[in-house]
Amino acid sequence: PGEEVITLMWSFVVSIYSIGGLLGSLSAGYLSVRFGRKKTMLFANIPALLSAALMGLSWLCGSFEMIIAGRLFSGVCGGLALNIHLMYAGECAPRQLRGLIAVTASTAIAVGKFVGFALGLREVLGVDALWPVLMAANAVPALVQLLTLPFFPDSPRYLLIDKKDKEGCIKAVKQLWGDGDHMAEIDDMMAEQEVIRGEKVKSICDLFRDKAVRWQLITLFLVSSCMQLIGVNVV
């Protein structure tokens, strides 16, 4: 193919990840309520492993389309996992550690980027013979999560508010936080359950119309927009 076609294919490989991320993010809310935080996080590993298989085998099959498809599935995993991780970690953490636990997402992203840069060096995997291995490296964290996450309980808040399973909530709290007195936290969740009883799930349009969260939305929008201007995407 000519140079213009190669540039177009390369652009698809790079940008399709964002399309997958959008699809994953849009489905995160529904899946987290329908199946629970834990099951959705386990489900997010399926597109991760599928993307690793497609990209890792693309050289053997001589197919750049497999790289594009793999990047799409990898983006779906990223969009799902980032949203659900924040939800699951925040709901599983005790109140005094909630902010600290939520920061682990940003820390994990920074560590992941550093590992990706390090593995991409020519002295490691950034050579012609090993780049398929580099492209399939995201299978490693997916497999680790698949092997370890089943031993963790689901989110106490999900069990109490979405599934109405008070016994399951108490059991999950004790498994996560120990055998101390955690009734104050459980009472807070029950109070929240009473407040939202009978309210329908908000759509994106409802969220933009809700004046109670308007300043929070503006703040998040500004921070997310500025993140695109700090140079990290260029790097």
TrEMBL record:
InterPro entries, A to Z: GLUT, MFS_dom, MFS_sugar_transport-like, MFS_trans_sf, Sugar_transporter_CS
GO CC terms of this entry: plasma membrane
Record's keyword terms, sorted: Membrane, Sugar transport, Transmembrane, Transmembrane helix, Transport
Major facilitator superfamily (MFS) profile domain residues: 1-235
Compartments reported by the entry: Membrane
Record-linked Pfam families: Sugar_tr
Entry GO MF terms: D-glucose transmembrane transporter activity
Membrane topology, as annotated: Multi-pass membrane protein
Record-linked Gene3D superfamilies: MFS general substrate transporter like domains (1.20.1250.20)
Gene Ontology process terms (BP): D-glucose import; dehydroascorbic acid transport
SUPFAM superfamilies per record: MFS general substrate transporter
Annotated TM spans: 6-30, 42-60, 66-88, 100-121, 133-152
This protein's name: Solute carrier family 2, facilitated glucose transporter member 5
